[in-house]
Amino acid sequence: MRIPLHLQIVIGMLIGVLGACLVLYFEPSPSDKLLWISNIKPIGDIFLRLIYMCLIPLIFSALVLGINGFGKTEKLNKTAWQMLKFTIVASTIAVIIGIVLVLLIHPGSGLSKDDLQKIVSSAGAPTDQIKKGIENNASHSLGNTLVNLFPKNPFEDIVHAYDGSYTGGGMIAIIVFSIIIGIAMVKSPVEKIQTFKSFLEGLYTICMKVIQFGMILAPIGVASLLFVLTLNIGISFIGILFKYLLLVIVALLIQEFVVFGMILKYFSKCPPRWFFKNIRAVMLTAFSTSSGSATLPIAIEVSSEQLKMPKDLSNFILTIGTTSNQAGTAIYQGITIIFLAQCFGIDLNFVQILAVVGLALFAGIGTIGVPGGSMPVLMLILIYLGIPAEAIAIIYGLDRILDMCRTVVNVSGDLVALVYINNRTIKT
What are the pLDDT digits (tens) for 249-301? Predict the structure, then answer.
């Protein structure tokens, strides 16, 4: 009997974590650790690269075909408006949940200056590299930022789509480009675009097939990724930052099962238990890869096969959601900013807290869906509030763990939005 994919991934996760714990039990030297990592890490890298290599053409073809499938501009506008409303409301609720919890519990108020210095000096966060990217981005005006959404050379943005320090539009510019092409197709005579449409359909099919090849390696790749992660950080991340870690996870769980559950039950007429049962493979892939982008092909497949959502709507909503609908990132940003302010004894006033809400909401909408994609945005917000940029080192060792958790919420939110918008479409 064939084991379901989500169970294979769970087994891979357990093997990776337990294998690393076994190695750590024998207290390996730094050189031995490096040897283990250099031998195991390539397996996980190959798994991710098999997905990433076809991701850009998949996003382009899925989004263009999704928009073209609407047939009428009015329907496209209505769907986009529904997605925007859902994103703003869901992300705002997420940020408020996180900020209320962190203000009530004060997880960062018990750290001494010695503790802070120890964590900062031992975390090893590459702050210089990240700060360089921040300085480049901060030098751009709002006008330049808006201009960068419209790529002068789409291929340049494709090359730098996963580069957090890139000052151009990157992934968002690719999505804007795809949307424009899709709208142009809707406005064009059908007989003139049929060849191009057939090409995109073939490209989409091929990309999904290549990604299916990659998913064969998923259990092994996940085991490799979690082995390396556990070996790098050990179990020392609990200690003094346990309250912060637990707080973020609790806030994410509230968003995932309470907020999204209520949206599904009362606004989408979809049983939450049935929904979460059918997206298990998506949630596990999101958790193990820490990447909404890498999870996109699985989400598209599950939305069609398990949730029975319209293909055109799925392609459009899920592709847009990889960079725009990220409630998990919004929660993480809001809690982390105030936590770090508490660590350094900085009391944020009401106006600054409102600014954190707005900036965290923006971060949830504009962050690229790759591991660590929110880190540059987080540093930019810290600098804006007068918190030392080096404070990022305090939570840097935990970021990958929390990245895994918030990616699950981000990806789940995209699927919840899909079910919600589909329900609204059927009603009208």
Answer: 999 999 999 999 999 999 998 999 999 999 998 998 898 877 787 788 889 98
Task: Give 30-82 pLDDT, tens digit per residue.
Answer: 888 888 888 888 888 888 788 778 878 887 887 788 777 766 556 667 887 88
What is the C-alpha to C-alpha distance for residues 296 and 285, in angstroms, rounded to an integer? 10
- Determine contact, residues 428/299, Cβ cutoff 8 Å: no
Rounded to two decimals, what is the model's pTM? 0.67
Listing DSSP states for 316-346 in one string gives: HHHHHHHHH--HHHHHHHHHHHHHHHHHTT-
d(CA 294, CA 286): 8
Q: How far is CA 157 from CA 3, 51, 206, in A?
A: 40, 18, 22
- 5-427: CATH architecture: Orthogonal Bundle (1.10)
d(CA 78, CA 6): 35
Assigned token pair, 392: 């990022």
H-run or E-run covering 172: helix 171-187
Structure-token pair, residue 65: 């075909």
Token pair listed for 35: 């040897």
∠ Cα 146 152 154 (to 5°): 105
